[in-house]
Give the backbone structure.
Amino acid sequence: MMKKEPSMAAASGDPFYVFKDELESKVSAVNQKHAKWRAILDAKDSPAAKELPALTHQIESAVSTAEKSVKFLEETIVMVEANRTKFEHIDAAEIASRKAFVATTRKVGNVLEIAREEGVLMPFKQELQAVSAEISTDAVKTRIRKEERKLMQSAKSSTSFRSNLTGQERNEHFLEEETQRQQQIMQEQDQSLAGLHSDITRLHGVTVEISSEVKSQNK
């Protein structure tokens, strides 16, 4: 079990704890989106049901980003073990504790919410796997396709409005809607890539900083 209060390694900006904190934030964001998604799904005929397709896509993207943070968390342990002289201030007990935490995150479970009891974090990867599995079931896919068809029918219902437009105006209207849709998709992709780039940059920066501190202490 992880201790509620991290060791001196955490206070020094240890990359493990940097990514652990980041992971908590990302899993929390996934859970918030998932809670909204679940509420809409259970509401059946709610007007908000039209949000399901886009919200499902957002959750998939958020889960993917969070899972990358889990991998970075594992990389910090590998980095410490491969450079024991540089990270000698991180003792064997601390490394064992970190390994236990990561090993726990790999277990398959049905946890859907972040839980803290005496400083023990419930497995993040369990949460991500459970959310990902739930939004990928055949029943959910069928529901999403149903909502997408409704959106298409809604778009067709505006035909009477468009029929009064000239050919050029209809084309401009279509291009405007398509441009907005593509911009939204690109924005979501950019946010995901920006988060990944930020993680990589942070890992490199913190590692360099710790390495410099260790060299300074060994002089």
Remarks:
- The two ends are 35 Å apart (CA to CA).
- Residues 41 and 154 are 20 Å apart (CA to CA).
